[in-house]
Amino acid sequence: MKHQRKAWLCLSLLAPAAAMAQTTLGGSNVVFYGKVDLAIDMTNFSSTPTRGASSSRNLSNDISYWGLRGSEDLGGDMRAYFKLESGFAADTGSSTGTNSQLFDRESYVGLGGKWGSIQLGSQWTPSLYLQARSDPFSRQGNGSGIIMTQQSPSNPRGFVGSVTQPNAIQYNSPLFGGVTAHVLYGLSERVDAPRTVGSMTDIGLNYLNGPLFIGASYEDQIMATTPAGGALSNRTLALGGSYDFKFIKLFGYAMKNTITGSSHDVKAYYAGFNLPIDQSTIKATYSGRKMDNGGNASFFALGYYYDLSKRTTLYTSFAHLNNGSATNFGLWPGLKTYSPPPIAGGAGLPVAGQSVNNLEFGIRHTF
Fold this sequence. Notes:
By secondary structure, the chain is mainly beta. The protein has 4 helices and 19 strands. It has a single domain (2-366), classed as Porin (Beta Barrel). Homotrimer.
């Protein structure tokens, strides 16, 4: 029944949204938008002493979503605005939200002026935006930077911005000489001790001047200890940037993650480029990850993207991931191959030390 109510709610929202897309209603500008992205994924796993070689073929969803956004001019250089965005798996038609979560990607309302803007609701963090702008694959496809820097929730170490931060307050500064600052605080809303568990502080500082972009971020997420009863700090410091030479655009990103009480820090990085050729773009990236206790891994990806129009793109990409003896990371977006674990009837691939090759052919359409 929950899924039926959710489906009817989606339909009731989509119908009026489609009718008022790109229209102005009583001084309010409301836009209906989205993206559908699907790829045929062919994945191969190497053999290890404990597991034989294997392969899989899947139709994989790669960040499909729809949303509503709008703004109202309040006069005196003031504006009110909102954003509601919902992810879905285009291969099955199911929502990517959990339980009754309809807008799992972002849902916030804001007020802006010459002084900047303030947003209230469920939001992406400044750290995530820095990573996306510094990633040659823009956090999409089998070359996505999240592979070595995130790997959440199965591996919470590293960049933790895999989901929106609920109950968040964010301030975005106006532009000062190419510099903007962003400060987000997510409330835990816990009553029982430790009351700080679930809260997050995230700060971003970005500089944009023509072809040059440079950014830094600091993220501190308070997590529960195991066994429960205590709190620990999961801190990530990151630097990223890009430079557009017109004939080629270069990207780079590096992060360091530390958890309170742990002597094993995580360091990860990636670097790559976009090479535009008429309606095509060649994308390449190399990424590495190192943990003080030996949890090392690396991967590279090479992709070709062809724009049929401003809204429709065909693409193909190959990626190779080399897992160290203590890591078992997988390649996005072929998550069907990696879950559920064996206890739930899945293959549980890859196992530690197993390398992964992935070739994908996809279609991306925005509206």
